[in-house]
Design brief:
With 380 residues, this protein is mainly beta. The chain folds into three domains: 99 residues, Immunoglobulin-like (Sandwich); 101 residues, Immunoglobulins (Immunoglobulin-like, Sandwich); 97 residues, Immunoglobulin-like (Sandwich). It is built from one helix and 25 strands. The strands form six sheets. Strands 10, 12, 13, 14, 16, 17 and 18 form a seven-stranded mixed β-sheet that branches. Strands 2-8-7-4-5 form a five-stranded mixed β-sheet, with no helix packed on it. The protein has a four-stranded antiparallel β-sheet with strand order 22-21-24-25, with no helix packed on it. The longest helix is centred in the first third of the chain and has 22 residues.
Length: 380
C-alpha cells in the first residue's frame, strides 16, 4: 500500500511583495544615515574638544607650589630694661618638600621690615631682630613672595619694660695660687701668683689697693689700676725666698675700694743639705799708697766652694788692726767657687795681724784663719 503525502503550495500575493519593499526601504534608509548618499561613505565628523580647567598662575594664591613651603615663627616675650641690650629676635623656620629658592618678607605690626632670598633644602632658619622702647604687644609675620605669595606663619609677643636698676658699687676680690712643692738646695725663690678682680670698672677707671700677707709677714701697700675697657681681672706675682725646710703661706688683703681677703695658699719646701767649704786664703799688699813709717794697704781673700744653689752669709774678723768685724753675703745659683775679700788701708805698723773668715749660713761650716805680719813701707 502506498503512503500518502500531502503538499501545500503558497502562491505569492500582495503581502509578500510589500515585505520585500519594506526591507529595501530599510536598507536604503540605513545607507542614507551613514553616508549621506546611497553607496558613497563619508568620514566621521570630529567631536568638539572639551575645555581644559584653568590652571592658577604662579605667584597667586591657590598655586600648587604652595604645598611645597611651610614655616613656623617664634617670638619670645621680654621683661627687663628697655630698650633690650640685645634686642628681641624673631626666629622663623622655613621648610620645603624639595630644594627650592624661597623669597620671604618679615612684617612687624603691619609694616614690612625685612626681606631675603634663601635656598631651602629641607628646612632653613631665618631671623629678624628688633628693639622695642616701651611696653606693649606686637605681632611678627613671616610671608612668602616666591614661589607663591602669602603669609606662612605668625606669632605675637609681649614686652614689659622695667626701670634701670641702680649701678652696684665697685668691689674688688682676689685669689692666690701657690707654686708647686719644692725639694732641693736652699736658698730658693718660690713665686705665688695672685688674681685681683673687680665686678665693674667705674667711669674714669678704678684703682685697687692691696698687699701680700703671710704668717709673720705683711708686705707694702700696692696699687692696681683698671682703666675703662680693661679686663676685669689682672694677675700679680709675689716671690718668696725659701731658706729652710717648712711651709710657705701667702694671701692677698684688699684694702680699697672695699675690704676683702683672698684664700690662703701654701707650698711645702724641703731644703736639701748644701755643702759649703772655705778652701783657703791669701794676702796681697798694695805698696802704691805707702808712706815712710807706715805699713802698706793689704787685701785678704778666700775661696768659698758651694755644692748647689744657696745663700752664703759670712763675716770677716780682723785682730791686731783695731779688732773689728765686716759682714758679707752672696747668692749661689748652683755649684760654684766664689772669692770673697776685704781691704785694709795703709796705716801705722801693728805687727802681727789675724784675718778670720766665718760662714754664718748655712751653719756648721769650718772657719778659715790666717796670721801674717805686714811689712813696713820702703823709705824713699
Amino acid at each position: 500500500e502506498k503512503a500518502r503525502v500531502s503538499v501545500a503550495c503558497r502562491v505569492p500575493g500582495k503581502d509578500s511583495g510589500k515585505h520585500r519593499d519594506d526591507k529595501h526601504k530599510d536598507e536604503k534608509h540605513k545607507d542614507d544615515k551613514h553616508t549621506g548618499k546611497p553607496g558613497h561613505p563619508q568620514p566621521d565628523k570630529p567631536k568638539p574638544e572639551q575645555p581644559k580647567p584653568e590652571q592658577p598662575k604662579p605667584g597667586h594664591p591657590g598655586t600648587p607650589k604652595k604645598d611645597l613651603v611651610s614655616a613656623t615663627v617664634a617670638v619670645p616675650d621680654y621683661v627687663g630694661v628697655c630698650p633690650p641690650p640685645e634686642g628681641i629676635t624673631a626666629t622663623g623656620v622655613i621648610k620645603t618638600a624639595r630644594p627650592t629658592w624661597v623669597a620671604y618678607v618679615w612684617t612687624h605690626n603691619g609694616r614690612i621690615v625685612g626681606k631675603g632670598v634663601v635656598h631651602v633644602d629641607g628646612e632653613r632658619t631665618v631671623s629678624y631682630t628688633f628693639t622695642p622702647t616701651r611696653s606693649g604687644t606686637g605681632r611678627m609675620v613671616l610671608g612668602v613672595v616666591s614661589p607663591f605669595y602669602g603669609d606662612l606663619a605668625r606669632d605675637t609677643y609681649v614686652v614689659t619694660c622695667q626701670e634701670q636698676p641702680p649701678a652696684e658699687p665697685v668691689a674688688a676680690s682676689a685669689s692666690v695660687t701657690a707654686p708647686e712643692d719644692y725639694a732641693g738646695a736652699c736658698w730658693a725663690t718660690r713665686v705665688f701668683t695672685g688674681r685681683v678682680s673687680v665686678n665693674r670698672i667705674a667711669a674714669g677707671g678704678t684703682t685697687v689697693e692691696y698687699r701680700w700677707a703671710g704668717p709673720g709677714f705683711q708686705g707694702p701697700v700696692e696699687t692696681l689700676t683698671f682703666a675703662e675697657g680693661d679686663p676685669l681681672t689682672k694677675e700679680v706675682a709675689h716671690p718668696v725666698d725659701a731658706t729652710e725646710t717648712g711651709v710657705l703661706q701667702r694671701w692677698i688683703e684688699i684694702l680699697s675700694p672695699n675690704a676683702a681677703e683672698s684664700n690662703r695658699a701654701q707650698t711645702q719646701v724641703e731644703c736639701a743639705p748644701v755643702e759649703v767649704v772655705v778652701l783657703g786664703g791669701r794676702v796681697r799688699y798694695d805698696m802704691s799708697t805707702c808712706t815712710p813709717g807706715n805699713q802698706p794697704a793689704f787685701i785678704v781673700s778666700a775661696d768659698v766652694r758651694v755644692s748647689g744653689a744657696t745663700r752664703v752669709e759670712y763675716q770677716w774678723e780682723f785682730l791686731g788692726v783695731g779688732n773689728f768685724a765686716v759682714p758679707g753675703s752672696f747668692e749661689a745659683t748652683g755649684p760654684e767657687t766664689r772669692t770673697v775679700s776685704h781691704r785694709i788701708e795703709s796705716g801705722p805698723p801693728v805687727g802681727s795681724v789675724r784675718a778670720r773668715l766665718t760662714v754664718l749660713s748655712p751653719p756648721n761650716v769650718r772657719a778659715w784663719a790666717y796670721d801674717f805680719s805686714p811689712p813696713p813701707c820702703l823709705s824713699a
